[in-house]
Amino acid sequence: MNRSACWMMGIAVVVLAGCQPGQETPTTADTPKPVPVTVAEAKTVTVRRTVPVTGTLYPFEDVLLAPRVGGRVERVYHDVGDRIGPGELLLELDAYEYRLAVEQARAAYEAELRRLKLTALPELGADLEQIVARVDTVIEAKANLGYAEAELKREEKLIGVAGAAQAYDTAVNRLAVAKARLQLAETDARVMLANARRLKAALDDAERRLADTKLAAPHPAEWKEWLQLLGPSKTPLQYAVAQKMVSPGEMVQSMPVTNCFRLVIDHILKLTVAVPEKHAPEVAVGQKVEVRVQAYGDRVFEGVIARINPTIDVTSRTFSIIIYIRNGDGELKAGGFATAEIITRNEEIVVVPPEALVQFAGVNKVFVVEGTRAQVVEVKVGTREKQWIEVIGLPAGAKVITSGQTQLIDGSPIRIR
Description:
With 417 residues, the chain is α+β, with helices and mostly antiparallel strands. It has helices at 3-18, 96-115, 128-133, 136-157, 164-211, 223-230; strands at 35-41, 43-65, 71-76, 83-84, 89-93, 214-216, 239-244, 251-252, 261-276, 288-293, 301-308, 318-326, 337-352, 358-360, 363-370, 373-378, 380-384, 389-392, 399-403, 414-416.
């Protein structure tokens, strides 16, 4: 082969080698262009952790009142909406028959006292023997006993005299009879004393029944404690008439009971709510609660947890709590619906702008700036607000991408604009 042929063959080999696939030399047109993005910094903010609940407002106290005795309603003093204090009169029944019963019981009692020569019944534990000794029949029996004893002594001195034996036997019998009559008189006196106590109880019962013809608002022993619990108030602590159920002339009965009035105390309201079981460690007595009702929009009424049910409802897996809400100005109405937030703690969290969050197939992620490239970080989402979203799994201070994410994958080059 001559020199010219060899040279041509070398050129062909070089040309063939340069045409092999995958062996092209890269050019600047094949390099990915940086994606223009905007960024923001992940910040730390302090938020209140709360437990949202809903429930119904109930009165602090709710009581149905009915007279203890039956009769015809003679007068009604209050109606729905009235405010009344403890002991204030609500209604009266016709008391004519009850007054007669008191007069009869008093007459029988006082007659028994006169027989006992007493003006009032002695207290239990008093010296009853002194009382018994002042009864006329006992005094007479003691006098007869003394006479019989003296007569027997005289007859004892005449023993041996003709005819004296019969007189002595008679004196002995008289003494025995006198002793028996004294014991009987003392027993009768004690019976009279017991009967006097029975008549006094009957009089007290008649007077109580007469007093029960007047129905008044209750005066509970806890009233002072309720005043302290209410604190300063625009209006004094009183009952409110929620229902009036009878009118003058109507008959009421003691059995079955005829309810006449429903009274409530609404200066303090109870909000009863159900809390999910998972929040049990976070809820405690004394925690503050923010309460809202539809009538007042976003206005907040302050409450406090007063009681926590120690058991969990196995059906709903919740436990109930009672929240006290001061209502001294009467703005809130018992029976209304309310929403509330139990304030459990303050906590620092990491937040990002809402546009930084990317969601795909149920996965939440953000793109962060690493040098000149974007890096994907999976996060969990917590509290959401209009201006930010809480993210868990991202450090504070990280630079998160807020626009251009649709063109990014993990490791994409970026250009911050």
